[in-house]
């Protein structure tokens, strides 16, 4: 695994403190996305292993569950990408998208030093999937700018 995808050990050791710091800054960006993208129904930011950082549009306990499910969904998609890459190393950044009727969800993975690999899921209703992906990427760039330095999302 890419070393950048791993959380810095000092942050991992004191995640209870750091998650509160990251959550506050991330919540501001997610609320900005909510205000500028009225079709959005929810947004959840988590670590790649499913730890909830911040969310809007869902109760906190649902944010915890969605973060865990997003970690699992990304893990399954990543495993499939590893098989399809036929031995080459696929990018650590990825987009997984789901459409069900008028509801769309885009799960974006990106690396943000020193926090490691993060996942941002954005759900919306009544818009095209491409719009959700663009909005998710824009929000990821805002999070990268606000929280640290990173390789850009896929």
How would you portray this structure in words?
The chain is of the alpha+beta class. The chain has a single domain, classed as Beta-Lactamase. The protein has 4 helices and 5 strands. It has helices at 9-13, 15-36, 60-84, 129-147; strands at 40-47, 52-56, 94-100, 103-112, 116-125. Helix 2 packs across helix 4 (129-147). It is globular and about 45 Å long. The model is unreliable at 150-154 (pLDDT under 50).
- Give a quick account of the main beta sheet: strands, pairing sense, barrel closure: 5 strands, antiparallel
Shape: globular
Mean pLDDT: 85
Low-confidence stretches: 150-154
Q: Which CATH architecture would you pick?
A: 2-Layer Sandwich
Estimated share of beta-strand residues:
25-35%
Quantity of strands, as a count: 5
Keywords:
154 residues, Beta-Lactamase, disordered C terminus, alpha+beta, 5-stranded antiparallel beta sheet
Overview in brief:
With 154 residues, this protein is α+β, with helices and mostly antiparallel strands. It has helices at 9-13, 15-36, 60-84, 129-147; strands at residues 40-47, 52-56, 94-100, 103-112, 116-125.
List strands and helices in order, with pairings.
Blueprint: H1 9-13, H2 15-36, E1 40-47, E2 52-56, H3 60-84, E3 94-100, E4 103-112, E5 116-125, H4 129-147
Antiparallel strand pairs: 1-2, 1-5, 3-4, 4-5
């Amino acid at each position: 695994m890419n070393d950048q995808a791993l959380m810095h050990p000092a942050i991992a050791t004191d995640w209870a403190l750091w998650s509160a710091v990251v959550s506050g800054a991330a919540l501001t960006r997610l609320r900005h996305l909510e205000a500028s993208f009225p079709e959005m129904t929810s947004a959840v930011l988590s670590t790649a292993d499913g730890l909830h950082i911040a969310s809007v549009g869902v109760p906190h306990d649902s944010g915890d569950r969605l973060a865990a499910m997003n970690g699992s969904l990304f893990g399954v998609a990543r495993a499939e990408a590893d098989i399809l890459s036929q031995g080459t190393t696929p990018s650590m950044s990825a987009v997984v998208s789901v459409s069900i009727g008028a509801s769309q969800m885009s799960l974006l993975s990106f690396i943000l030093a020193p926090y490691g690999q993060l996942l941002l899921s954005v759900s919306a209703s009544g818009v095209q999937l491409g719009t959700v992906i663009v909005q998710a990427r824009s929000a990821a760039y805002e999070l990268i700018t606000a929280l640290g330095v990173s390789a850009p999302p896929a």
